[in-house]
Design goal:
heterodimer, A: alpha/beta, Rossmann fold, 2 domains, 12 helices, globular, B: alpha/beta, five-stranded parallel beta sheet, 5 strands
């Protein structure tokens, strides 16, 4: 297929080009950096909505309904649905499209499934780069959906301007074990499947937890934002209007309190760090792991001829010399 | 961070309520290191092709047990061509009578896997095709 992979191609909104560039962002990162440089400088980042929660809590269904409420207002919306990669095979099963049937052929919606690919050192930088591509392609909102619980999910959620944490009545005391970071990262709590009889009890538990959180974190980012609990029945579309409004209110809050810019600067800082880690790994650490010199050093450490600490000091010195070469 | 992550779309076109086979294949391909998008039951050709485009997949696996392959598969292949993605490797599986295999191959479906095919055989087939 002949297709022009260029900044104009991305901005034209051609789905094939956008899709192909995202694949390059995932698989051929070095080759796509020139394009990303061009896109970033001429693009205002889309509004990022993160959504996380336990498996089966109805995230994808809520995303479907929420996206429909935005496209009804002529907005272009993209969804990045993230699922974990298998640590053993490196493969992944990406099943979030199953619950997004109603938006899967909408012309103003772009859905992309991504695997976490077990990125060392936290968030896979390809996710932020994908946001850059989608923003350049004219998507005004980008939803990032991820299964909640682990550190990776918290990192993903931290990208977002507004983060929805979804829970369900049957979660019960399980919610107590939500990672602390996730509780703090939530800008809006969604109690889905709220037509179940135990919903009001769960709402009470949630309220108590949020109050506790408040009193413990006087200095948290959310000090002036009262985290709402929105009750929804995703499959019936109940509570979606309230949820849409809550997202809008949080966005207003961010722009009033200038926290939107604070969030952006934090996100950018994190991304620069991620890119540097990626560069160091690709150019210095990974090539080293292959080398026989490294095997010798490891053998030396095993035999106590040297120690890990000295070895690292020497390796870092050799990196510095390498870098001199690299610059020439 | 493999450079050659093969991305596969497993799709169930049309009115067909059985996806045990599709799920087993999806899982098997995942365990072979591929990234597998599964779209769920009762997908229209439009939905399947749109997913293939947006996900930029290398392979589409169509699973069908309803007997409507003669109706649906040509529509899917046409729409793939219209979308400029006739470079995708398309495979089929399910209950497709032997007599129909050639007709489906003629419209561009590379291989049809019958019930009882081992996952290893499908994995090998995909890897070989991707190497070419």
């Amino acid at each position: 297929m002949i297709m022009e992979i260029s900044a104009e191609g991305v901005r034209s909104g051609d789905e094939r080009i956008i899709a192909r560039v995202i694949s390059q962002v995932e698989n051929q990162r070095q080759q796509v950096f020139p394009l990303l440089k061009e896109l970033y400088r001429s693009t205002e980042l889309a509004y990022l909505v993160g959504i996380t929660g336990p498996p089966g809590s109805g995230k994808s269904t809520l995303v479907e309904k929420l996206v429909l409420s935005w496209t009804a207002e002529e907005e272009k919306v993209a969804v990045i649905a993230i699922d974990p990669s298998s640590e053993f095979s490196g493969g992944a099963l990406l099943g979030d499209r199953i619950r997004m049937g109603k938006i899967s052929t909408e012309k103003n919606v772009f859905i992309r499934s991504m695997a976490t690919r077990g990125y060392l050192g936290g968030l896979n930088p390809a996710i932020f780069d994908t946001v850059v591509v989608l923003s350049a392609a004219g998507y005004q909102k980008v939803v990032i959906e991820t299964v909640g619980g682990g550190q990776n999910e918290i990192d993903i959620v931290r990208l977002a301007d507004t983060t929805l944490v979804v829970t369900v009545p049957e979660a019960g005391d399980e919610i107590q074990t939500f990672k602390a970071g996730l509780m703090e990262a939530g800008d809006i709590f969604v109690l889905n499947k709220a037509d179940q009889p135990t919903a009001s009890r769960m709402e009470l538990i949630l309220k108590q937890m949020l109050e506790m959180n408040d009193s413990e974190n006087h200095s948290s980012d959310n000090s002036n934002w009262e985290v709402p609990i929105v009750k929804t029945v995703g499959t019936e579309g109940e509570g979606i209007e309230e949820l849409r409004r809550a997202v809008m209110q949080h966005r207003d809050f961010l722009s009033r309190s200038r926290k939107e810019r604070y969030n952006h600067s934090r996100v950018i800082r994190n991304h620069v760090v991620h890119l540097m880690e990626e560069f160091l790994r690709n150019h210095y650490i990974d090539p080293l792991l292959e080398s026989s010199a490294f095997q010798e050093i490891l053998a030396g450490i095993s035999a106590r001829k040297t120690d890990p600490y000295t070895a690292v000091e020497q390796l870092l010195k050799s990196f510095n010399k390498e870098q001199g070469k690299h610059e020439n | 961070m493999s450079q050659d992550n093969i991305k596969v779309l497993i799709a169930k076109p049309g009115l067909d309520g059985h996806d045990r086979g599709a799920k087993v294949i999806a899982r098997g391909l995942k365990e072979a290191g591929m990234e597998v998008v599964y779209t769920g039951l009762r997908q229209t050709p439009e939905q399947i092709v749109k997913a293939a485009v947006q996900e930029d997949v290398d392979v589409i696996g169509l699973s069908i047990l309803s007997g409507a392959h003669g109706e649906l598969f040509p529509v899917i292949m046409d729409k793939l061509t219209e979308s400029g993605r006739n470079d995708v490797l398309v495979l089929a599986g399910g209950t497709i009578p032997d007599d129909d295999h050639q007709k489906l191959k003629d419209i561009g479906i590379r291989e049809i896997f019958k019930p009882g095919t081992s996952i290893a055989k499908i994995v090998d087939f995909i890897r070989q095709e991707m190497d070419e």
